[in-house]
Structures are given as C-alpha cells and as structure tokens.
Amino acid sequence: MQSQAHLNVASNNWRAIGLVILCIRFVQGWIFWGGGSRRFIYDPYKLDPYAPQWMANKVQSAMPGMLFDLSPVVSFLLQHFVLLYISIIIFSLLELISGLALIFGFFTRAAALLTAFISVILMILFGWQGSTCMDEWTMAVSNLSIGLTLVLSGSMAYSIDAWLMKKRPEMINKKWFMLLGSAPWSFPTLKKVAIWFFVVTAIFTVGTYDYYRGAVFTPYHAGPVNPNVFHLSLSNAKLLPDDEIQFKMYVDAGPDAVPMYLVRIELRDENNALIEAWPGTELQKLPKQAIQNSYAYNQVRVGQYGLIAPESAEAIIRLNSSKKLNPQKEYQLQVYSVDGRRWDLDLNKRDSSDL
Questions:
Q1: Centroid of chain to Cα 333
Q2: TM spans, by residue (predicted)?
Q3: Which terminal residue of the chain, N or C, has fewer Cβ atoms less than 10 Å from its own Cβ?
Q4: Which of 135, 130, 335 is nearest to 251 (CA)?
Q5: Banded pLDDT at 349 (limits 50, 70, 90)
C-alpha cells in the first residue's frame, strides 16, 4: 500500500511537471514545426532551386562567420547540388517532425533532444548573424535550453505519451520509453542528467557569447565577423595577357538582408598616380564572362550603379585596361563601395595561369 502511494505521488509530481512545461513544449514545437512547414507547405519556394527564396542562399550567407572554420564543408555542399538539396530536405523534415512531435507530446524526449541538436547546428552556422540584437545567437541558445529542459521533463500531461502510458501502464517501466518518450525518471537519474545539461548549456551560452561579442573574458566587440558592416577581401591579383586585370573578391562580413554596392575601381601606380578608373557606368557594362562566381546562389552581378555583391558572394573579376601596363612595375587596385569605403590590393606581376 505504501509503495503504491509512493508511485501515485511520483506520478502526480511528473504530471505537475508536465503541466508546468506545457506552454514551452507547445512553443518549442511550434517554432520547429513553423520552420519546416514554411518550406514544405506555406512557402515552398524556399525549396525551389530556381526561386530567389531558395534556402541555399541562406546557407551560403553563413559561410563568413561559421564556427570551427567549417565553411569548406558548406562550400563543398554548395558546389554539389544533389548533396545540398538532400541536406536541406532532411534538415527541414527533422524540423517539421520534431516540432509536430513536441506539439502533440509524442516521443517527447527524442523530439526535444532533436530540437536541441538542431539548435547547436544553427548556432554553428548562423550564430554570428543578427545585425540588431544577436538574433540568431539568442534563438539558438534559447531553443537549446528549452530542448534540454523538455528532455528532462518529458510530457506527462496532455500528450500522446501520457495517453499511451494510461492505455499501457507497462510502458512506464520500459527503458526505451524512459529514454525516448515521457516515462518518469528516478530522482538520482534526473539530478545527474540535469546537472550535465546545465554545465553544457552554461558553457555553450557563455562561450559563444564571449566569442561573438566579448563582455565576459574580453572587452565588448562587434565579433570576429561583423554582421553590421560590410567587408571585402581582395586576393589573387594578376596581370593577364592583353593588359587584362584579374582579381578575386569575397564579401566576408556584413548584413545578409541587403547587398553591398561597388561603384568604382581604380588602378594606381607605385606613386599613387591614377592609371585608369572603372566608374559605375563602366562596371555596369561588364560582360557576363568577366564575372566568374564561385557559387550559383549569392552572386556578384552588375547593377544600375556598378557591381552588386551580397554578403558571402565570391567571384573572380576581369577588367580590360585601355593602358599599356608594365609587368615589371607595381600597381594597386582600389575598390570603392557606395558609402565611400575603400579596399586595396597590390598587383605587380603578369601570369596567364588560372586562379
């Protein structure tokens, strides 16, 4: 009798926990269901490779600031369409399924752990973005902590898991259902896992915050990659035959919501004397073959006032010079954005090989 009373108290305690987390279980589920359903149901253009909303554009935008220097992995996917498309479909399905499972409380712990895992992936990819208030970082750490909390709690109230345990009481003692569903844990197990989850969450939150913004172990800063201000990396400058100039440009910082506008390129000699200039009116006339984009998604292209370069765009640019250039002399390319900022690149040798 005493043992049965103890079981009833434990069951009531877990049901109380299920009631307490009911709101966050629903919201966490809706967030992930919303992410998947937008792509599969409400905005299918996100899965259309020919549409501007195609998810590959968002994936590419993550490259400049990804954690653990994983941009080569994303670059590989972007250049292999089948793998890229499969990855996006699988990721979207995981969001959709985990979200629905949490909303209805079905295999709650498995679904919650999946949302926590997705949150870590999103932090690795997009944690550096968010030009106003660290938007992506905030979402990732919040969803991680909510997901791990739901792993601890399960859903013993208003859930399919609870209904299954009511219909088949023997499931309460099944280890697989304790792990994947919502069967109650013993207090020692709950305490041990909760402490580990707290340690992981604290390290993840404080560590990524300090990396992206400082203000913990270092002074506050805009981040290793600034999500607010565009930056242009120039490299591989070469003089080609027929006095053609070639260089690579990569927009490796800045907001992903608007593109960067390049309105003038100048060529100067070692004394900073102007040799030639390509104003916006010339840049807008560049032929398609003069811009060799590295990726098929966010691309450098000509626009009304020069070149339009969204964040994460990378391309090889070729400019025809009307001057006779001396391969023995040193030159410098100067690239100007519409807001007057300038980036310089030394150019001092002739080479007909490809980049």
A1: 32
A2: 12-33, 73-94, 106-128, 140-160, 193-212
A3: N
A4: 335
A5: low
Side chain identity, residue 311: E
The pLDDT value given to residue 221: 85
Q: What is the pLDDT of residues 183-197, one digit of tens each?
A: 999 999 999 999 999
**Residue 74's beta-bridge partner residues?**
none
For the chain, how are helix, strand and coil distributed in percent, rounded to 5? 50, 20, 30
Contact 225, 64 (CB under 8 A): yes
Furthest-apart CA pair in the chain: how many Å?
100
Taking only the tens place, the pLDDT of each residue in 294-325 is 999 999 999 999 999 999 999 999 999 888 88
Predicted TM-score of the model (pTM): 0.88
Contact 245, 239 (CB under 8 A): yes
Helix or strand run (H / E) with residue 109: helix 108-126
E-strand stretches of the chain: 231-240, 244-253, 260-269, 274-279, 291-293, 301-303, 306-309, 314-320, 331-337, 342-347
The Cβ of residue 313 has, within 10 Å, a number of other Cβ atoms equal to: 25
Distance between terminal CA atoms of the chain? 81
Q: Please state, in angstroms and rounded to a whole number, the distance separating the CA atoms of residues 193 and 181.
A: 16
How far apart are alpha carbons 8 and 14 in whole angstroms? Answer: 10
CA torsion angle for 148, 87, 96, 299 (degrees, to 10)? 100
Q: Which of 197, 48, 70 is nearest to 127 (CA)?
A: 70
Residue carrying structure tokens 């994947």: 180
Whether pLDDT at 350 is above 50: no
The span from the CA of 252 to the CA of 62, in Å, is 10
Residue 68 backbone zone (phi > 0: left; psi -120 to 50: alpha; other: beta):
left
Q: What is the CA angle 167-170-173, rounded to 5?
A: 130
63-92 in b/e form (b: 16+ CB < 10 A) is: bbbbbeeebeebeebbeeeeebbebbeebb
Q: Is the pLDDT of residue 354 over 50?
A: no
